[in-house]
Amino acid sequence: MITLPGLIDPHVHLRTPGQTHKEDFLTGTSAALAGGYTFVIDMPNNAIPITTSKLLKEKKEIARKQIVADIGFYFGSLGDNLEEFAKVRNQVFGLKLFLNKTTGNFIINKKSLIKIYEAYNINKPILVHAEEDVIDLVIDVCKKTKKKTHVCHVSTIESLQKIIKAKKAGLPITCGVTPHHLFLTKKDIKKLGTFGLMKPRIDDAFSEFVWKNLKWVDCIESDHAPHIASEKRSKQPPFGVPGLETTLGLLLRAVSQDCLSIKEIKRLCYDGPAKLFGIKQNARIEVDENQEWIVEGSKLFTKCKWSPFEGWKLKGRVRKVYIRNRLVFDNGKVLAKPGSTKVL
Ligand code: DOR
Ligand code: ZN
């Protein structure tokens, strides 16, 4: 049995309010606990994006009643709510900007990027969904404004190379990588069909490169993006895959294959995100690191009940989870009462 600090996932989509048929704060944070996460930060691309302090307040009030793990939130912007930034200064962990098309079509006009950066005078990261076509622009704006920039789910060699170069030049830039970009191959994606659709998409060459350059990656972020099976099967399937309950098992399997160390898991899933977002949490997990298990979507806590890793044999079962010394998860059972943990 190994003990680790409660893991932090700085990138989840728990879909509430607006799309509670996909996930809600209870199922989403239950999935977090089962996966060893005691703190998650939720994205603003809800059905009605979180771009006003009022919408943020309402979202937090719903969360407060449902959560079984601690949670924080990001603010969103399309460049037309700059006056709201000051109001949410102490209410969020950062600002999320989408520069490419993905679920919700909540995408900013490239020309407004600099204007949004200049208006954001909060010393917390600006997170960007910035793929290949816009990474230069983001690095340029980061250079001009010197504002903390976190590039979400890096997924190509070229982008990671550019980020490494910017880091070496001293820019305040960080990046995260998802478990699906680390572990899924084009072959898996083919088999998954529309269930394997996510943004950014998988690039086989990247996985090999990122494993060799992991020291430049600041955190692992699941990009837990639940959509229900009928939606994924439909003519216009939404982008995204769930990830909260499989990430640690995939990483511990990599440890058993000598591809990773426990120390590195702690850096990528706790120290890295804690430092990036200034999180201090008194939480710990006990993991049976040798226990093998097979991923079965129907047994997951996430409301979408499927996984892109269906049938995979993973390693390491989360046995006990403690938040502020209280046992909140015990051998597959959530013990915390909805609303008993904190919105931070
Ligand atoms: O695949 C994705 N799904 N990528 C994103 O950037 C958003 C996410 C979602 O919200 O479903
Ligand atoms: Zn995302």
In short:
This protein is of the alpha/beta class and 344 residues long. The chain is 31% helix and 20% strand. It has one domain: TIM Barrel, CATH 3.20.20.140.
Folded structure, characterized:
By secondary structure, the chain is an alpha/beta fold. It has one domain (2-334): TIM Barrel (Alpha-Beta Barrel). Helix content is 31%, strand content 20%. It is built from 11 helices and 14 strands. It has helices at residues 25-34, 53-66, 113-119, 135-145, 157-168, 179-183, 186-192, 204-212, 229-233, 247-256, 262-277, and strands spanning 2-5, 7-12, 37-42, 70-73, 75-76, 95-98, 126-129, 149-151, 173-177, 219-220, 283-294, 313-323, 326-330, 333-334. The strands form 3 sheets. Strands 5-6-7-8-9-10 form a 6-stranded parallel beta sheet. A 5-stranded antiparallel beta sheet has the order 1-11-12-13-14. A 3-stranded parallel beta sheet has the order 2-3-4. Strand 3, helix 2 and strand 4 (70-73) form a beta-alpha-beta unit. Helix 3 (113-119) packs parallel to helix 4 (135-145). It is globular. The mean pLDDT is 97. Residues 13, 45, 102-103, 129, 198-199, 223, 225, 238-240 line the site of (4S)-2,6-dioxohexahydropyrimidine-4-carboxylic acid (DOR).
